[in-house]
Design goal:
By secondary structure, the chain is an alpha/beta fold. It has 9 helices and 8 strands. The radius of gyration is 30 Å and the shape is elongated.
Length: 235
């Protein structure tokens, strides 16, 4: 079993823009970057995804989300800096943890438009449809309603790690101690004796106990000796 790492850093861009950002040494992520790692993925392998991105083109976020979502059982996502806009969509693709110092931001889709009123109304309708499509990533991850997800997007909501966890958008805050109801034990090999073991000791004590009221120290010593011998055996 191998472990692969995917870095979602910088803006999310189409594949044919990658050369430009690489030329100027700017962080960026395109679907081909993710696909390259996924192509080396074998059944049973694990993938760790680290996100620190302000977002970018929505269809790029959707494509990367889809690539990861197809293998969500083997993927763990970590938000280390920010997961904003389209990058927050990517974060919904699997089990996700967020650094306590990180931020998540969700908002409505935006674009630039020009033209007459019909063209502008058509653009507005297109944007509303895009919002509905993208909000499914939030609703499927968190269980929140579409209305709640759209309201969150409408208000350009910024979330701390704790707030994202409360909304169900992430699964855990990184470095957070897990609460447990399991009682503390002396060590990993500790276990209460089973019924068979209890019955065996009870029978041993009854056989070794002297008659009458003469329960002196000799009896207790012998009983403890027999018990130690018994613990060395498999019951």
């Amino acid at each position: 079993m191998a472990k692969h790492r995917i870095n979602i850093r910088g803006v999310l861009i189409p594949n044919d823009y990658k050369w430009y950002y690489d030329y100027f040494g700017e962080d960026s992520t395109c679907p081909a970057d993710v696909q390259k790692v996924m192509d080396a993925f074998l059944d049973g392998d694990e993938i760790e995804v680290y996100i620190n991105s302000p977002g970018g083109v929505i269809d790029v976020g959707s494509e990367i989300y889809t690539l990861l979502r197809g293998n969500r059982e083997n993927i763990k996502i970590y938000i280390t800096g920010e997961a904003c806009s389209a990058a927050s969509i990517v974060a919904m693709a699997g089990h996700c943890e967020m650094a306590p110092t990180a931020l998540m931001m969700v908002h409505c889709v935006s674009t630039r438009a020009a033209g007459n009123h019909s063209e502008m109304e058509h653009t507005a309708e297109m944007l509303r449809t895009a919002d509905q499509a993208l909000c499914t990533a939030y609703t499927e991850k968190s269980g929140m309603s579409e209305a709640d997800a759209l309201a969150m997007m409408e208000h350009e909501t910024w979330l701390t790690a704790e707030q994202a966890k409360e909304h169900g958008l992430i699964d855990a805050v990184m470095f957070e101690e897990n609460d447990t109801d399991t009682p503390f034990v002396a060590g990993p090999l500790f276990a209460l004796p089973g019924k068979d073991q209890l019955d065996k000791v009870r029978s041993m004590l009854e056989e070794a106990e002297p008659e009458g009221e003469n329960k002196d120290s000799a009896f207790l010593i012998q009983a403890q000796f027999n018990l130690l011998k018994m613990r060395g055996e498999r019951v």
